[in-house]
Design a protein that fits this description.
Number of strands of chain B: 12
Helix content of chain A: over 70%
Distance between the termini of chain A: 17 Å
Distance between the termini of chain B: 45 Å
Strand content of chain B: 15-25%
Oligomer: heterodimer
CATH topology of chain A: MetI-like fold
GO biological process, one term (chain B): transmembrane transport
Number of strands of chain A: 0
CATH architecture of chain A: Orthogonal Bundle
Number of helices of chain B: 10
Family (chain B): Belongs to the ABC transporter superfamily.
Strand content of chain A: under 5%
Radius of gyration of chain A: 23 Å
Structural class of chain B: alpha/beta
CATH class of chain A: Mainly Alpha
Keywords (chain B): ATP-binding, Nucleotide-binding, Transport
CATH superfamily of chain B: P-loop containing nucleotide triphosphate hydrolases
Largest sheet of chain B: 8 strands, mixed
Membrane topology (chain B): Peripheral membrane protein
CATH superfamily of chain A: MetI-like
Helix content of chain B: 25-40%
Order of helices and strands of chain A: HHHHHHHHHHH
InterPro entries (chain B): AAA+_ATPase, ABC_transp_ATP-bind, ABC_transporter-like_ATP-bd, ABC_transporter-like_CS, Oligopep_ABC_C, P-loop_NTPase
Radius of gyration of chain B: 21 Å
Structural class of chain A: mainly alpha
Amino acid sequence: MSAVVEDKPNSLWRDAWRRLRRNKLAVAGLIIIAALVFVAAFGPWLTPYDFLSQDLDARNLAPSLAHPFGTDDLGRDVLSRLIYGARTAFLVAVIVTLVALLIGVVLGAIAGFYGGFFDKALMWVTDMTMSVPQLLLVVVINASLKQPITLWMEARYMETMNPIYRNSALIDFVLVFGSMALISWPPYARLVRAQVLSIRNRPYVTAARALGLTNRIILMRYVMPNAMGSLIVAVSAGLGTAMVLESAFSFLGIGVNPPTPSWGNMISDGLRVWTNYPHLLLAPAAVLAVVTVAFNFLGDGLNDALNPKGQK
Amino acid sequence: MNAPLITIKGLSKAFPIRLGAFGDKAAVVRALDDFTATIIEGETLSLVGESGCGKSTTGFCILNLQRPSGGSIVYKGQELAQLDDDAMRPFRRDLQIVFQDPYSTLNPRMTIGEALSEPILFHKLATKSELPARLSRLLADVGLSDRFASRYPHELSGGQRQRVAIARALACEPRFIVCDEAISALDVSVQAQILNLLLDLQDKYKLTYLFIAHDLAVVRHISDRVGVMYLGRLAELAPSSDLFANPLHPYTRALLSAVPEPDPKSSRQRQRLQGEVPSPLNPPSGCRFHTRCPLAREKCKAEVPALREITPGHQVACHAVTSATTTQWEPVSA
């Protein structure tokens, strides 16, 4: 605190932003993520080549000026595929996190604030979901639902001739988003519940009750804003985790299917030929590693910035 | 004498808890037992006692912030004790509270102006256009300038925050405020300021206070009446001057003799209590004070002493006290 009080009010968010800016690693993480968001958003205008165009005369080329990360076994430009992979990764990470967040925040807040049977039931469900091995659950969902959904889509296409039903990438996305959201929401629900439990007994919440405010106002204006700090940290880490998860599923062949580029299936493809063409493994693996680390740095920085008391 | 504002009869609060490594043993903490008192309009009634004696629970139960387990609270002819949230809402405006800890009493994500506007707008005590004037009057009432309205709680000192907490209570235009250790967490110099502020506001707005404290010097200074509590029960209730001049309950005597004397040369007789306060999980039978009372007899173990009026306005719950001057038994030696 400076001795001279400026007349502009300092909200806790502004203070947190100031602390975050002083953290070099967090700023580095933020810049990398911002760059990635930019690349993902403007991918089609940035890629030197079409990610699908094959040039069978130029297969497995080593990095050069024309192809900074070389080409793969079908002669496709690796850089272009990485950029499109960023779109996939971001799409999956953001949508999965948003869906998981929506489920987790709503259920966790209600459970923590009102308690009672709903709270107990929710805890059972989260315990149950978290006790099932995540990969196994996703494999089962994909393996068991993919065929019926595909058949259903084909049937719908025959009926309506609507081309949207021919897009098989849609099935991938729905299944990947759905199953990942299904395994991702319990930690958010538990975090929010724990936050709400600790906040709802603070004197300012009791004071709000004494003022006669309704539960909805108390929850929305007194409890939730104070739970946001921890939630933001969790989301930052969660986005990174979701990206890794998506890559892991694609790597195992249960995620996004070729030819849609995903870092996971690029790594998987590269792994088969890495002794001869290491760049096909290194490029996507390095990008995934850098992005994951960037999210972790940002998450750590946010944690320190939003919960400065823990820093001592 | 003014009219009664709130009439409390037999108010009790028991917290069910679970004990044991697996929470397999159910038990009950009897935080407040059979509290009976009438709060008179315009007075300051103080409750004193050691921590854990149930004085804060009393305040919370009166405001229905904790649901009483038994007893009755009558305000404006309405029984409050078992009202649900919606039915209680119209009464909340009149009955306010100021808490002990200035650091957690304000929502850190709201500016002072937002915090104060909330009750005003919610209870429709002013329109949006009247709001700025109303806010500035509220802030002026608690000795703060207008520019505090745009500040956040973490930019304020403890004393300033406590002023804001008082302003928030005042925003509802209440008749009754529970001051739950409202000055205990502040510096001594700030305590005096906040105390005087509370007294000024009481004059200005005809407020009634339930002042919960453990600092007897403060209580003596501001109270009209004082209630002494021990282990969830009211031991003695008397006009302030009467209580400090002529304490009748043996616990009150011990408590008053423990007050530090500013003059180091003054010698006085201290009455030291032996042992610890028993657990409210398993309170002693009969008079709850009998395990530590110098006057205890067989009767005290068996029978709960009722609160009896010894002299006008001076109520004591003790078998040994029969008049204002005599106690029935002499202290037991050793």
